[in-house]
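Researcher: We're teaching a course module on how sequence relates to structure. For the next exercise, students receive a sequence and then see the predicted structure as tokens, so they can try to spot secondary structure elements on their own. Here is the exercise chain.
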Amino acid sequence: QVPLVESGGGLVQAGGSLRLSCASSLRNFSRYSMGWFRQAPGKEREFVASISWVTGSVKYADSVKGRFTISRDNAKSTLYLQMDSLKPEDTAVYYCAADRGGSGSYDRRVYNYWGQGTQVTVSS
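Model: And here is the predicted structure for the students to work with:
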């Protein structure tokens, strides 16, 4: 089975908003730290945001601070990314990931499970 499935991507004009979801079938979802990463054509996959299962603390890449909000609903085993004030440079495939550790790492190599991604395209 695929443990993580993203949805909510699409085409939006600059300045618009999208809300991404990541549905998890992992056992004990509440005890995974979760992250969002993105990858644009020709670029490496980069950290966007994370949330720790231990503390609930969140981290954001500088490029999205003040515009994106990560959250989770453990009762629904779902992770969210609210994206506001979108810019063309936000265009990428967005992936959710799960980590058995508690820190919500910036390092993609730490994460144990990955979704297949959802495309976000921001037009100017």
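Model: If you want an answer key for the exercise: The two ends are 38 Å apart (CA to CA). The mean pLDDT is 96.
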